[in-house]
Amino acid sequence: MAKLYVVGLGPGDHDDMTVRADRALQSCSCIVGYHVYVDLVKERYPGKKLLTTPMTREADRCRMALELARGGEDVAMVCSGDSGIYGMAALIYELRGEDTQPEIDVIPGLTAACSGAALLGAPLTHDFAVISLSDRLTPWETIEKRLDCAAKADLSVVLYNPASHGRPDHLRRACEVLLRTLPEDRPCGIARSIGREGQSRELLTLGQLRDAEVDMFCTVFIGNAATRFIGDKMVTPRGYRDV
Amino acid sequence: MAKLYVVGLGPGDHDDMTVRADRALQSCSCIVGYHVYVDLVKERYPGKKLLTTPMTREADRCRMALELARGGEDVAMVCSGDSGIYGMAALIYELRGEDTQPEIDVIPGLTAACSGAALLGAPLTHDFAVISLSDRLTPWETIEKRLDCAAKADLSVVLYNPASHGRPDHLRRACEVLLRTLPEDRPCGIARSIGREGQSRELLTLGQLRDAEVDMFCTVFIGNAATRFIGDKMVTPRGYRDV
After folding, report:
1. Phi and psi for A112 in degrees, rounded to 5?
2. pLDDT range class, residue B58, cuts 50, 70, 90
3. How far is A207 from chain B (nearest CA, A)?
4. How many other C-beta atoms can be found within 10 angstroms of the C-beta atom of residue B186?
5. Contacting residues for B114 by C-beta, under 8 A, at least 6 apart
6. Strands A3-8 and A103-107
7. Which chain A residues are Cβ-neighbours of B124 within 8 angstroms?
8. Which of A61, B141, B150, B167 could disulfide-pair with B129, CB 3.0 to 4.6 Å?
9. Would you call A202 an interface residue with chain B, using a CB distance cutoff of 8 Å?
């Protein structure tokens, strides 16, 4: 029976894929995904059927993948980062419903909280929250509430989707919420295009972050009360007492 | 000049390591780590010097790794899961301080929030918090505050270190904090020994979780208001409006 793999590609570079994800892409007959992600892998895995849909047609993309697997294709549905975190795994399960076919294999991948952190140093280390600033599927009031709670609980925060064409000021508004609780000099970092052409990194304070330019390829890190810059790294100590 | 790799191994199975982590372990001359993690990799990478320290001697372990790299060894310091999240990357940077040598390369790995989620279905999908229940380095009051804030903000929650020999009742106490805000029937899941011998999974409600038996090899997932069970999977819908 054919299988539907929901594959987290990690940030973009093949080196950041897992062995399991690489094997699924080798073994499948068909790769389905948003065209940017299919473009990341199509040269390394030649001879596959490639099917893409535009960014906002996620449900169509998932229905297509399920239909292909029901028809006998081994399908790899590719997701950027992890397949579960802001990825397609949940939607695939929802659309399959109580049916047990096709078989689904969710293959996790490096999410930007991990890959972006490594680029900046070690900004997480301890408890943290991951919050998307996209209000396409979440009311902005909910996002604000989550930011406010995370700041009050001294959680480090990782912001996904800090901006897009339709919402250029979301990062500024998010920083204003955080600054109700956190100081202007709280260490922060921006990881850009992790593992892809144009990769870069920036260390700055929360006050500076409010006015920073970001796009949809950025992941933003806000430290907790212990976070500091050591050399050119953003580091949150774990708190080992014998250091 | 020798290099110090801080390598996230992922949950345990070689298939869940990244290509980059595999390459670092192949190229290094020396593997340093907590003995359980060194045991996970030593057979696949023969001919390396192996150095281990007990669990609570993290700073000693990091000093040893830095010293070896300064002495010319290419060192892979291995961490379970990600190298940054509850891993050794921050401590390595702290102990190196403002020095720029030895060169440090933090190689991220799959953290249990990603690998455990894939085992259970797709329980995260959207915004979430990662909170450790270990009070070895964090006051319990801080942990309670974080749990309370996460529940109030409708964040899914991933609990690391839900129990150990010295603190068997931490999960019960954490559930009691969450139940101040969340309902008894909130869907939850436990991922055990992910990617290792004895891997298992369990779906249950938050009320049941309060009395569940867990150990240090468990990762616990608490859903948000939208999370539900679909067949034998724990799924948090992303909220695509056209489903």
Report:
1. -65, -20
2. confident
3. 24
4. 20
5. A8, A82, A84, A85, A108, A109, A110, A111, A114
6. parallel
7. 84-85
8. B150
9. no
